[in-house]
Design brief:
Largest sheet: 7 strands, antiparallel
Strand order of the largest sheet: 3-2-4-1-10-9-11
CATH topology of the largest domain: Glutamine Phosphoribosylpyrophosphate, subunit 1, domain 1
Number of helices: 17
Mean pLDDT: 88
Oligomer: single chain
CATH architecture of the largest domain: 4-Layer Sandwich
Length: 485
Amino acid sequence: MPLQVRLPKEYERLKPNDDCMNEECGVFGVYTNGSGIDAAEAAYYGLFALQHRGQESAGISVSRKGRIETHKEMGLVSGRFCDGLSALKGATYAIGHVRYSTMGDSSLVNAQPLVVDSPKGSLALAHNGNIINAKELRAEMEAEGTKFQTTIDSEVIAAMIAKNSADGISDSIAKAMARLKGSYALVLMTKDQVIGVRDPKGMRPLALGKLDSAYIFASESCAFDTIGAEFIRDVRPGEILIADKNGLKSRQTPQAPDTALCIFEYVYFARPDSDIDGISVHKARERAGELLAISSPADVDVVAAVPDSSLPAAMGYAKQAGLPFTIALSKNPYMGRTFIEPSQDRREMDVSLKLSALKRNVRGKKVLLVDDSIVRGTTSKRIVEMLRTAGAKEVHLRISSPPVMHPCYFGIDTSSYEQLIGANHSVEEIRKYIGADSLSYLSIEDLLKTVECAACNFCAGCFNGKYPEDVSELLKSSGKKLLDQ
């Protein structure tokens, strides 16, 4: 009797776009320094380049004549957002943000940048990451009389910095950093400064670039290429970089000896044309495919990828295995996020709208399909069915990362074990559920080989359960009992 794999009821409520890891957001900042660059326009194009990091909302704040003005919209940068951009034209400083919510509701009030008042004037802040002690810090500040307008942890950071800003912005940020636990890459703006900050463990990426005399901060270096800027370096873990009329000033707060950049940046989050902490994202993914071909060979006719983040790994696999690479799945570039609560039929329809099989490339062939990860398994199951319907003789699935077996608490939207198929089922059970002829994952040892010589160490907590911060209290509410039974 075949094994019957039963998945949690929560899986049946998921939208198709939920069957993946989702980053929290992307940040961007520019201090034009008299270069003649329009700051709002630079921020707009920078956010466009970072759109893959967040699609729920977008916002830009500018400083003009000592005042901070902000425009925010729900949805994509390329949507209604550009209609309000003209009102921000002519500014010399700007910061921007694209958001995917992991803490706080998806609503305009929670969109960033956030603007708060301080003894030194208004302060705007954009944040990528997740503060795991935000609840305690918020309660402490509320007891002291602080009023909060949103439900997000980013406002806690902004309020902490604003509270002590009379001591000077650098000291105020450093004091807040000493209290914050979790991940954060920040860009901040005062009436005459733009500031980049990276948490002491470097869990979230942040890079520094330059265009003429303008200084630019961005979550990824691909944003610099979009606006014609030059990548200078990554912001160091624990570093505060202040751009103002005097140039660029660095303050190094204590850097954690055990730095912990999220390794999923290389697996899935980052654009392949980005470099993070000295490592090319494309090269890391290509190397993952090569190592996967060595550890998990298969008797197949062609190698293909689940577009788009898996393409380098699939090409690496094909090259190492000496097999032809083909396009088996075509992605619809106009398929955005859906906010309609779908039925099962609607879920399957949305997957079909997003991806379609190229029948001529797979009919009668044994296909090896490379994907970057399996989080919940629902989309993988549908893709395998799609290839079989298109005439594939066999479908073998290879994953260019280890099984996702543990939640993330540092900026990714997987906060419970119930959401993760790898936490509750063996590889063989997952294979049978998905319907693949074979299934193999890259080992964590091989994954770490893809990022050798990086400037940071790595957090691989979603794979091995080893976290860079104490998350024992969070684990109590994450369904860990599923693993302990």
